[in-house]
Amino acid sequence: MTDKIYNVLFLCTGNSARSILAEAIMNRVGNGRFKAYSAGSQAKGEVHPYTLDLLRRTNFDTGFARSKNWDEFAEPGAPEFDFVFTVCDNAANEACPVWPGQPMTAHWGVPDPASVEGSEAEKRLAFSEAYRMLNARISIFTNLPLASIDRLALQKRLDEIGQTPDTEIDGAA
To answer: With 50 as the cut, is the pLDDT of residue 173 above it?
Structure first.
């Protein structure tokens, strides 16, 4: 066992929903073994109100939640990341800054709940679904034997987590 705390960055375009949810989940599920952050390539500057509401309803302190540009984490003095995960397809296809420390990366695409149109219930359901998917993936990730797995095998597992069909994620949650 190692006492290392792994720094994890979740990236999205707007940093108002999925990446904020992932940051909150990782900081809870990671049990002190992980320190999560989130950012966006084109940060909206505010967290989506449904994101904040969902987090409050699931007993998260939302004081951490702030929409910020990923440039903030490419500056000197920023945390050095062990893992960087994109959670939206747009961010996965963009040219990312060079992250110090050569972090392992993977794409864990989740549908954008903020883009869902429909009734209030349909919109809130989309946020709950994004939370469910991220929680399942993060739970799988945090249970990997990081200290004893080689880098190539770990990269394979990270990629597999992001490609897990919803039906398999349901069972892992």
So the answer is: no
